[in-house]
## 1
Amino acid sequence: MVAFRKAVSRGTRFSQIYIPKSMHGLIEPGDEVEVRLVRKGARLHYSKGLQKLSEFKEELIRGVFSFLEESAHPVSIFVVGSFLREKTGYNDIDLVLLFGEKKPSEELVNARLSEKFNLKFHLLFIDSGHFGRLLKMCPLTRAMFAGFVSSHKSDIPRETYVDRKHIRFLLMMPYDLLEIRLGSRAYFDSLRRLVTIERFLKKKPIEASEISREIEGLMNMHLYNKIMNNEEIEQGSVNLLRKLIRERLGSIEELLNHGEE
């Protein structure tokens, strides 16, 4: 517990403590009082370039940060995803929590959070010791943190490096979609993944708006909206999406192989 003792004095110094009017006469100049920290106020730290949120969203994030810091004790908390970019079009609130060796149950934290705020959350727990490395070598993690609001000041490292083994692990699902048929959203997510990886390898910006714009340019808006919303699509559209996935996989493999020469 953080606490200190201080004598009450009159003055205009910045560090002075204000006594409520109801306690005038009970506490006077010269009296010694004890001040203790009951709960630390949640502060919001914006990533560079992120547009300021509405007062409602800021107040909600402060409440979420305070609740998680008291109940789950993470090293740091980040809000990412569509909640930051869209006014009303988000389905849930994406949170990334950094933990040290001890971390609580992800399911339990999610349940308590949803019960407290009556909202849907998507949680991702990351080992704080591996976080810096992920930001440098994982295209998907780096894209996720292109814009964020955090509980502590955090900087995204500018330097990156290519871990070919990790990249090829990320390519497994797109490769599977060339052989198996899943819901249309899987094709959208795989294209988004491939565009992100390719742009990372080419050292291009990987902000969400840039990635969405590139995917939109690959097909008509009717198909784009259908796969984004996981609606049923005909076999002809599946064939087109597989063709797009195959082309991106070829481009990425070429970039990886060129780097190994």
Note: Residues 3-36 form one domain.
## 2
Amino acid sequence: MKCAYYAIGDVHGEAERLRALHDAILNDIAAHGWAAEIVHLGDYVDRGPDSRGVIAAVMALQATAAHCVRALRGNHEQMMLDAYDRFDNADMHWMMNGGAFAAESYGWREARGGDWRACIDKDHVAWLRGLPTLHCDDARKIAFVHAGIDPKTFPACSEEIRIWTRSQKFFDPGRWPARPELDGWLVVHGHTPTNDFRPQIVGGDARQPRRINVDTGAVFGGALTCVVLAPDAAPRFLAA
């Protein structure tokens, strides 16, 4: 049976809004009575007020929801893991990119000093390590990823591309090469906030565009956005 997908963009510590969006999604699923999968596209941590609460909310939904709940790894999760594992510039790089706010949500205080790693829930670290960087529905030709793909090598593009790319060759589906591996595919992603804080639909037709960006800058004043991809229907959006 084909299912409806609910794909959530970059959260960045906005735990209260994520919980509200989860409620809206579950209500929407119940109203339609269809099979569904909820896909989080990454960047749960950093910059916002409650990274710990975001991870806890996703893990709780995975444990309790009657529907499949997926979570992908974003570049900010990768930076956090790199900082956690290494005692070099990775630590400072993460802190300067919002990591200090994430560490503080776990109870660390910069003014007190000490190793922030001791504050992080070990089960959260294990959960982050297990996150994949790509989920595909081969039958419907939908790829879910944090940042994007390399149109020249998809689906074999590297994890670095999947969590970091901002290539203009990806952003413009008109520049994608004529490869059978790309025929009819839609890529759903976040990572790059839209300029107008609205979700972006690019290429293709109303029912199957080529690219949808749901990073609407939740931590910068925009909404936290979810795209709903129901079978044989045009994309629509929920927000909190």
Note: The beta strands are 4-8, 36-40, 68-71, 134-137, 142-145, 186-189, 200-202, 211-213, 225-229, 236-239.
## 3
Amino acid sequence: MPNTPYLDNSVAWRIKSGTLEFKEAGYGSTVETILTSGLATDVIGLISAGKEADVYLGTYHDAPIAIKVYRLYRTSHRGGGPIKLDSTGWMAALEFELMRQAWKGGVRVPAPARRVENMFSLRYLGDEQGPSPRLQEIELSQPESFLRTILQGVEDLASAGVVHTDLSAYNILVHAGEPWFIDFSEALRVDRTGDVPWMRLEQARKALESGFFALQKYFNRYGLSIDAETRASQIVDRLDKHGVLR
């Protein structure tokens, strides 16, 4: 998400000239914010640092939960600049709602619990040994069956009205022997296609093809292939209920 449009000219000029300095909240301040917001009753520690957000492990009355916190001013991208609080709140709200949409549709995603501004809590996938691994980090004993389950999950996501725009072996957790989809920060809502349906559907097609090609890179190690273009077209055809692409 571009940062510049959210900054007025005076603020942008002070950033460029070096006369305005931003400081990201430290670990202690973030933990205090999580606790005072009521998202958790205890914070155990940081378990993941992403491109735009960090994930903490906490508890809510002794039940383990994860808390995702979007950073206010920085990203891990080179040249990342400040982002206004209302923008990060919007990003958190979007991901929270899309995960809730997928969860309501019966898809394996960590159940979202509650959102406060740029933070939200969700089900923790892991055990006493630590968080569940990403697919990229493990070797599968039954890769063909696991791939079928993933592909069915992608179709189930679309049926629930969501298309993941950053699908890869890095954004699938392996928990209790099953694939769980994570990171919906830029996902597409496809049960409502908006004022220009064909554009949303073509965005969905592009995202699906990209995701299938990314998964192909992982499953190459097992000699398995994914017909990315065909599968993407089949899903988009089902989403195109009014035939706008035909």
Note: The two ends are 32 Å apart (CA to CA).
